[in-house]
């Protein structure tokens, strides 16, 4: 079977992040844990223990390392890919262009 070449369609620079967070799936009324892997002004990359289907609407609370605060954002799942049993890489696109607090987080992780 021939493997398709992956084309990265990102248009914004992403900053690597290692942070934990929580999600609430607005479609399924379900909570869960996620690891935030990267973040940009348009979205974030997550690692989840369960599949989060495309177009699911999520509410995310991300802990901010070195501060006792959480960043709260809304977004839509743009894509989800199983990487191993009970591990899914997820791309989240923010509802608003630049959620409040994102620019500060990008500066702190630079």
Strand and helix layout:
Blueprint: E1 15-25, E2 30-39, E3 43-48, E4 57-64, E5 69-84, E6 87-94, H1 102-108
Antiparallel strand pairs: 1-2, 1-4, 2-3, 3-6, 4-5, 5-6
Q: In DSSP terms, counting alpha (H) and pi (I) runs of 4 or more, how many helices?
A: 1
As a whole number of angstroms, the C-alpha radius of gyration is 14 Å
User: Which fold does the CATH topology refer to?
Assistant: Thrombin, subunit H
Give the total of domains. Answer: 1
Contiguous low-pLDDT stretches (5 residues minimum) are none
Order of helices and strands: EEEEEEH
Share of residues in strands: over 45%
Q: What's the mean pLDDT score?
A: 80
Describe the strand arrangement of the main beta sheet, using strand numbers.
1-2-3-6-5-4
Compute the number of strand runs.
6
| CATH architecture classification name | Beta Barrel
Q: Structural class of the helix and strand makeup?
A: mainly beta
Highest-level CATH class: Mainly Beta
Distance between the termini: 40 Å
Coarse shape: globular
The largest β sheet comes out as: 6 strands, antiparallel, barrel
Determine the fraction of residues in helical runs and give it as a percent range.
Answer: under 10%
Instruction: Give the full name of the CATH homologous superfamily.
Output: predicted glycosyltransferase like domains
């Amino acid at each position: 079977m021939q493997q398709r070449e992956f084309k990265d369609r990102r248009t914004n620079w992403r900053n690597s992040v290692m942070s934990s967070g929580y999600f609430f799936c607005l479609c399924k009324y379900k909570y869960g844990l996620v690891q935030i892997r990267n973040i940009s002004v348009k979205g974030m990359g997550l690692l989840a223990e369960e599949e989060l289907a495309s177009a699911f609407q999520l509410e995310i609370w991300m802990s901010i390392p070195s501060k006792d605060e959480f960043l709260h954002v809304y977004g839509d799942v743009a894509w989800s890919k199983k990487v191993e049993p009970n591990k899914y890489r997820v791309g989240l696109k923010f509802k608003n262009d630049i959620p409040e607090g994102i620019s500060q987080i990008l500066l702190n992780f630079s």
